[in-house]
Design a protein that fits this description.
By secondary structure, this protein is α/β, with parallel strands linked by helices. It has helices at about 10-20, 35-40, 55-70, 130-135, 150-160, 220-225, 260-280; strands at about 1-5, 25-30, 80-85, 90-95, 95-105, 125, 140-145, 165-170, 180-185, 190-195, 195-200, 205-210, 210-215, 230, 235, 250. The strands form 4 sheets. Strands 1, 2, 3, 4, 5 and 16 form a 6-stranded mixed beta sheet that branches. Strands 6-13-7-8-9 form a 5-stranded parallel beta sheet, covered by helices on one side. Strands 10-11-12 form a 3-stranded antiparallel beta sheet, with no helix packed on it. It is globular and about 55 Å long. The chain binds flavin-adenine dinucleotide (FAD). The site of flavin-adenine dinucleotide has 32 residues, from α1, α2 and α7.
């Protein structure tokens, strides 16, 4: 069992990982080796100490070099659920389980607001994770809302299983060419159904489907973990970055504004120190 599990590889996760490493706490870090799209996409960053007027790509390279130098590994998996038990938390990644005594949520925020019905049908025809739930839709008709080009590999994976995929891309230059994928324009307004999601409703039309995949950079924290207190869509924390759940800490954009690299890195550092003291 790990001392800590960090979820998210943006500035907050990077800072938490570097600090846990320095404090000699055993940890597993879930995210992407490409770190975070939000780190990479900034044109010019003028307000991060020590890195004056760098692009997001340059900052990302600087973070990666520091992680590699500290010999820290990133586990390229998406955490889909967190379950408390006595003295530990179990983290679910698809069909794999990991255990840690504490958790740092550094998941960022998703700019796309939940669609009506999204949280109601989550786990009943609505999924955030292609690799976790894709097999349930083998030979079926699904809708896939994809918020980032980087997530196209998950769309391809779903297209290899489903009979038909209605793709709703929220980005430009779609490069999906699979014959069973039909691109649909517009933003869905609601997911409807009785026991399960059955219909994706747009302003002037609707798709009858067996399931809906919402491929986003960050799922709402409440979807990953029940019982976590939030306020205005952000995780509620105290000055030690402690949430209302014992042993669960949060850092970065997911705890609230300002959405800034320096704030995220600072909070990741505080959360890692709090984990250290908690484990002591
Ligand atoms: C275009 C743009 C320009 C910006 N410019 C600036 C600027 O100049 N200066 C500034 O200070 N700030 C800027 N920002 C804001 C800055 O990018 C954010 O404040 C910062 O990235 C927040 O870091 P974070 O670690 O909280 O979250 P993020 O950077 O959003 O990282 C979170 C990561 O966690 C991953 N994740 C989420 N859920 C899971 C899960 N369940 N399992 C595994 N991984 C998960 C996500 O995929 C993501 O990679 C800009 C943002 C944008 C979009």
């Amino acid at each position: 069992m790990y001392g800590c599990a960090i979820i998210g590889s943006g500035a907050a996760g990077v800072s938490a990982a570097l600090t846990l490493k320095a404090l000699n706490v055993s940890f597993i870090w879930f995210g992407s080796r490409a770190l975070s799209q939000k780190i990479r996409s900034a044109e010019n960053i003028a307000n991060y100490p020590g890195l004056a007027n760098v692009s997001g790509a340059e900052m990302s390279r600087a973070f990666s070099a520091q992680i590699d130098g500290a010999e820290i590994q990133i586990t390229e998996k998406t955490v889909t659920g967190i379950y408390p038990s006595v003295g530990k938390y179990t983290l679910l990644c698809g069909d794999e389980l990991f255990e840690a005594k504490t958790v740092i949520l550094a998941t960022g925020v998703e700019a796309v607001k939940p669609i009506r019905g999204e949280l109601e049908f989550l786990g009943r025809g609505v999924s955030y994770c292609a690799t976790c739930d894709g097999a349930l839709y083998r030979g079926k008709e699904i809708a896939v809302l994809c918020t980032q080009k980087e997530l196209e590999r998950e769309v391809r994976f779903l297209a290899s299983l489903a009979r038909k995929v209605y793709l709703i891309p929220l980005y430009k230059n779609v490069e999906i060419t699979e014959p069973n994928v039909e691109t649909v324009k517009g933003m869905p307004l609601e997911i409807q159904g009785k026991e399960r999601a059955e219909r994706l409703v747009f302003r002037d039309s609707a798709l009858e489907i067996d399931g809906v995949f919402l491929l986003k950079a960050a799922a709402p924290p409440s979807a990953m973990f029940s019982g976590l207190e939030t306020e205005g869509g952000h995780i509620r924390v105290n000055r030690d970055m402690q949430t209302n759940m014992k042993g669960i800490f949060a850092a970065g954009d997911c705890t609230g504004k300002p959405y800034q690299y320096a704030k995220a890195a600072g909070e990741g550092n505080v959360a890692a120190h709090s984990v250290y003291h908690f484990l002591q």
